Amino acid sequence: MEEKTILAQILRVLDLYAADMRKQFEALYEKFDSLQRQVQALNEKTNTMDKRVEDMDKRMEGMDKRIEEMDGRFERQIAQLERTVNERFERLEAKLGHIRVEPVETQETVDFHSVKIAQHDRKIRHLLHAR
């Protein structure tokens, strides 16, 4: 009987140990499941972030294209403005050239008339003295 009692006690201890082990395994499985859920959530967040980064890359590419187009337009506009300004300066230079010639011609006319007036003055004085 004593053997049966010892065996029964050993079986009870083994059952308790097995029950404790089952509880520990269940706790480990729960922790493992929790970790799997966390990893899955992190993977989903990572995928979301990847999509956002891809969207941002596409937007940046679009912005780069627009900036390049704007740069091209600005360069064309600047070139057009330069041509327009150059044309207008050329017209101004032509006008100023004519304006410069006019005072020279006017001065020559004034000089000619001054000489003639001086000649006439001398003739009038000569005629007045000759009387």
What would you call the structural class? mainly alpha
User: What sequence of helices (H) and strands (E) makes up the elements?
Assistant: H
Strand content: under 5%
| Residue share in helix | over 70%
Radius of gyration: 55 Å
Termini separation comes to 188 Å
Q: On the 0-100 scale, what is the average pLDDT?
A: 91
The poorly predicted ranges are none
Biggest sheet architecture: none
- Anisotropy-based shape: rod-shaped
Count of distinct strands: 0
Task: Describe this protein's structure.
- There is one protein chain.
- The protein starts with a helix and ends with a helix.
- It has one helix and no strands.
- The chain has one helix spanning 2-130.
- The model has no long low-confidence stretch (mean pLDDT 91).
- It is 98% helix and 0% strand.
- With 131 residues, the chain is mostly helical.
- The radius of gyration is 55 Å and the shape is rod-shaped.
